[in-house]
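Listing S7. Sequence submitted for prediction.
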Amino acid sequence: MAQKLERQTYKFHNTISINAEYAIVGREEEEGPLGSLFDEVICDDNCSAKSYELSEIDLIKKCLLGVMSKADFEPNQVDMVIGGDLLDQLTATTFGVKDYGFPYWGIYGACSTFSLGLQIGAVSIEAGCADNVIVSASSHFSTSERQYRTPLELGSQSPPTAQRTVTGVGSVILSGRGNGPYVTYITKGKVIDFDQNDPFDMGTAMAPAAFDTIYNHFKATNTSFEDYDAVFTGDLASIGHDIVTRMFEEKKFKVRNYFDCGSLMYDRENQYVNAGGSGAGCCASVFCSYIMKMFRNKELSKVLFVPTGALLSPTSQQQGQTIPSIAHAVVINSKRG
């Protein structure tokens, strides 16, 4: 059974191994600094589909098949798929899994969806409710932009604080047996509202949620930045990353080896991405490529992974609501326990 350390944090005692991972991205992401690390790159935004939304569904299908192939799994060996995306009612993920007969939990945590899925999958395995779980999260630049911001046809310019929604999907297989790396701790996030309502500055909106979750994780586990090879937040990009750094420095923390997936995805000097990347597929695809390859190559042994999510919707945005945010933390360790 998992050990509850404080209100938000749990330590696992059973094996929760990441046995396979797979990442697919778009052309813009391939042109970034991580381009050679992804398993597949799609031909274009449509990828021969009739719409951007159908393209995202195809991305999810390809990623599910890719991660199962890596693990030498058949669909009937998967106890459940836990996944989500940014489209209304999780339509991309729902249509992506429907043809394979998977038991399915559709989840939504905005850009924190992947870590939310890792937490639910790990808890399920720890409790004996599953042996093999696929966790997946996706986003698509063209589907998200026209749902949350403006029609693509307008060609609107974005301010420097904006982030580019990543076209990408990442999937892992969590299992109750395997050679790791392992999920060893989780810290559940709380909804934090920084009273910010600009959808073109989500890094500022999400930064306090990242700080709150990391700070409470450090407190519950009696750790700090020095205890991890790296701390990765998800999708804060350059502005949110700097805010979190300052918040910890104000608390007298020595901030070291702290990175953000939204900043890692693109080359901001040579690509038109403003503050960096975002989207549920951003941290998922970075985790399933860059981070996991460093684990496989023994360049990392212990990581705190903290994707963040801006919990806005088109309805709340149009009604002038603020942007509440959340962050969920997962410790990945090359050793059990």
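Caption to Listing S7: primary sequence and predicted structure tokens for the chain studied. Residues 136 and 171 are 4 Å apart (CA to CA). DSSP finds ten helices and 16 strands in the chain.
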